[in-house]
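WARN no homologs supplied; continuing
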Amino acid sequence: MGSEMTKLKVTQIKSKIGTKQNHRDSLRTLGLRKIRQSVVREDTPQNRGLIHTVRHLVEVEEVKS
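OK structure emitted
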């Protein structure tokens, strides 16, 4: 196996106003605070779960690193 780890670029595209508390908590855990803010995270099952919870509020791209 190579040392390349796939990373995910997560961009918030919708507001968290009016969403459930667990959605707001998931965005905060991912490091997202503002619309159009992006973060790069490791592609792990934990991060995939957080992204799945807020999939209607974010956009995801795979990034090779």
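The first strand starts at residue 6 and ends at 12.
OK
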